[in-house]
Structures are given as C-alpha cells and as structure tokens.
Design a protein that fits this description.
This protein is mostly beta strands. It has helices at about 10-20, 95-100, 185, and strands at about 5, 30, 35-40, 55-65, 80-85, 100-105, 110-115, 125-130, 135-145, 150-160, 175, 210-215. Strand 9 and strand 10 form a beta hairpin. Mean pLDDT is about 90; it is low at about 245-260.
C-alpha cells in the first residue's frame, strides 16, 4: 500500500517532466498524508480541432477517493489506495479506471515493515525513493465528487500492485509506477481501455528504488520537514520479507474533510 509520500522537487521540474504548459508554484512537501491535497496530472483538457498544445493539466485533489454515487462521505471509508488487479471491476473504481486515470507526482514514498504478530518489536519506517533521484509518477485514479449542496471536490487514490523483490523485504504492496514513455498511453482514456494499459501496472524493476531506514519522526503528520527523510542511526537487523496482511479498514473521513483549499 501507500500511506505517505513526498514531493520535494521544484514546480519547474514537474512541469518539464509531465509536459505541462503551466503549473502553480508549490513548496516542498516531505510528509504528505491522507486527506491532504496532492498534485495530480490529468490528460482531459479539451482542445479545439487543430490545436496541438498539450491536453495535460495539473490540479490538486484530496487524497481520499470518493465515488460519485456516495451519499454521505462521513459514512464512507477512506480510500487512499486502489488495487490495480481489481480496480477495473470494483464498483468504487470501475468508472475512474475507464475514464479518469491520472498521474500522481512524487519524490518517493514511505513504508513500514511490521513486526510479526505477537512480538514486542515496533514497526520500522523506510523512505523509498528512485535510485537515480528525480520524480516518480504513480498511477492514480480521480473522481470529482459533488456534495448534496452542489459543491465539487476532486478526489484521488494511488493504484498499488504486488511489491518488487526489493520492496517485498519491507511490504508486500507498492504504488504502480508509470514511466515517462508511457504517460500518453496511460492518460489516454478515450482510446485506451483498462485492458489496454494493464501491462503498465506491473511492479517496478528491482533496481528502480532504494529503501532507506528513517526515524519515527515520519509517523507524525505534524513532522513535515526534511528531517523525516534523514537516515536513522543505530544498528538494526535487515527486515525479513513481509507477510501479506489484510488491509485494515480506514476510519471514515471527518465531515470537514471536503474543505481543502
């Protein structure tokens, strides 16, 4: 799964990588948490016939997906991840998988290696980033939710897949990574159905990421500075491969979570 990530690169680098015409300025964010705004890239900007400008746009979305048919967000679980293997069939994600695939800009993500049940050990946080640095694009889904009073809010979820061999030492799931050469195919929801892009939702190569053990500072959302990515000190045995665990049901969002901006 993906429960925290970061985006610490400059707006200009994001603009260049994703081929955007414009992007608003934003500060580095080291500890992005569920229900917070995240930067997503959609390929649904309408252009007049003959206009060869990009159809991509950057926008902010609430990290916590809300299907359009939800009546009361307070009674709906917080969907921050979507399993890529089943997203095309699940009622919550089916329409978005077909019509609203997006890219989520990140510098990396955090994952926790959980100790065996019954042990007295504590979870160990890791900062997982591309070995070559730079920006990684997660595959994502978005939905514009309209509340009963007519207010609209863009929401999003990160698609996940089985972990690569390296990531599996920490956790059994990881975000779907979309490479730059596949951006156009992934975002082309007009011509590319979910079955046409299923090959893009495979685990990233084993040599793509590196995992760095960090301190418990990242556990608290209030800790939002670069210190959360500082390598932890002290010796610790390398983690054993994580065993598959059943994802716990997230708490329902508070009634004011739609008031993001």
């Amino acid at each position: 799964m993906c429960g925290r990530f970061s985006l610490t690169t400059s707006p200009q680098e994001v603009q260049e990588l994703f081929g955007l015409e414009e992007i608003e300025d934003f500060p580095p964010r080291y500890n992005i948490a569920p229900t917070q705004p995240i930067l997503i890239i959609a390929g649904d900007r309408r252009r007049a016939e003959g206009d060869n400008r990009t159809d991509r746009r950057a926008l902010l979305a609430r990290w916590g997906f809300l299907p359009g048919w939800v009546k009361d967000p307070a009674d709906f679980p917080l969907l921050i991840n979507a399993r890529s293997e089943t997203a095309a069939e699940k009622a919550s994600f089916r329409a978005a998988m077909r019509h609203r695939r997006v890219l989520i800009a990140a510098s990396g993500f955090y994952e926790w290696h959980r100790p065996p049940k019954g042990s007295k050990g504590k979870s160990i946080p890791y900062w997982i980033r591309p070995k070559q640095g730079g920006i990684v694009a997660f595959g994502g889904l978005m939905e514009t939710y309209m509340s009963a009073d007519g207010a609209e809010i863009d929401t999003a979820a990160v698609l996940t897949t089985a972990a690569s061999q390296m990531i599996a030492q920490v956790h059994d799931r990881m975000p779907v990574v979309i490479r730059p050469q596949d951006f156009s195919r992934w975002l082309d929801c007009l011509n590319q159905e979910p079955r046409h892009v299923s090959d893009l939702m495979a685990p990233a190569p084993d040599d793509y990421f590196e995992a760095i053990r960090v301190s418990d500072l990242v556990n608290k959302v209030a800790n939002s500075g670069s210190e959360v990515q500082k390598p932890a000190t002290g010796d610790i045995a390398p983690p054993e491969p994580a065993k598959p665990v059943r994802q716990a049901k997230a708490p329902p969002p508070a009634s004011d979570q739609l008031k993001l901006f």
